[in-house]
Amino acid sequence: MREDNRRPSLLIVDDEVNFRESLEMAFNDTFTVSVAGSLAEAKECMKDRIPDVILLDIRLPDGDGVELLGEIKSYRKVMPLVFVMTAYATVESAVRALKEGAVDYFIKPFDLAKLRREIAVYLENRFLLRKIYNLDRELKKIAPPFTTSGTGKMKEIINKVPMIASLDIPVLIIGATGTGKERLATWIHSLSEKKGEMLAINCAALPRDIFESELFGYVKGAFSGAVATKEGLVEKADGGTLFLDEIGEIPEAVQSKFLRVLEDGVYYKLGDTRERRVSLRIISASSRDLADPASPFRRELFYRINGITFDLPLLRERRDDIPLLVSTFIAEANYAYKKEVRGVSPEVMKQLMSHDWPGNIRELKWCINRAVAITVKDIVHIEDTAIETKPDKVPSGQDGVDYSIPFAEAMGDLEKKYIVHAFSLAANNKTKAANILGISVRALHYKLKIHGL
Length: 453
Prior knowledge:
Oligomer: single chain
Distance between the termini: 60 Å
Structural class: alpha/beta
Strand order of the largest sheet: 2-1-3-6-7
CATH class of the largest domain: Alpha Beta
Largest sheet: 5 strands, parallel
Radius of gyration: 29 Å
Helix content: 40-55%
């Protein structure tokens, strides 16, 4: 049962001629079989194509069969089904082979019928998993990964993504933490028809002193401790998509080198002088204003990553979507916790609709997961939720400031007032207003967007 109707391929690697020939005869009816009597012959057989299944002896004339596993693993994202065979079985050799990617371990002499059955089961399972993966990708293309009523900004985003997904142009996703930036990036990648995978990196989570080596990799001896050549994220994402969350946190020293990847598709491993080429799509995301003149982010890099921009709204800006999101998260939590919760009470829904959700969708999902996990009823009630309610307003201090307002909200309101005031002084001229505020016109456009002006 194969999707492409071809016979699966099998490589038998064993130095015992009679044993090798008996295996070849046993599998000739269902496989396209090739044979090798040494590591060197096996590598030669795999130059053009890696077989679906490998029957591998551990003790070979020119080395240890497990070495072949390590070599395949270093340049193959999906390992073939490798069954190790040996007459000299030890626990250590078995564990080592399984760690390197072998699926099972057979001690000579073994039951040939049992081996045939096991190979058939593994092949069928792999075929079904591949089919499920392909179906999942097709479903993702049909259905957006966002639960939404289809209004406002989210409607614009959902309509725009299929139009630009296949274009070979960088994408920048702007949005606060928890608004779904990586989910949007994954959807764009799934629609892009890229053959490679999408690799995600949180630039804010990587220590600055190893950022370059993680991004570009390094060669053996590049620095103290570099005992082997390492593949970087750019290389791993070749043919696919590299998603850089919080791209504004890339160290300044690395920004110019990353700019070359975007402009010319070339990079250098750390400690190497050989130029390497790569073809991949870059999707970036940021929760802060990269266009701010005070930002250390390079202007030329910003212009290159800002090919197509998506500005994800805060959850409190799309409250109509909350009931739909709640239903989705309840269904997911029911499956995870083996519950049968039907919904939330009217009081809970009122609370959910009025909350400001500073953590956005991520906070709402956590709230629903927790409520479903602890409730003993089929409806979530107020006592099951853990929403932080706004504190009662405290009297203003002698300076007239209301200190009950969160700092970020207060600063945002102040900035908005400054922009409105600048426009009144500039008679609604954007260039003059930007000069009054001491920022660029581009930065002003961004601030007008985030403040809804």
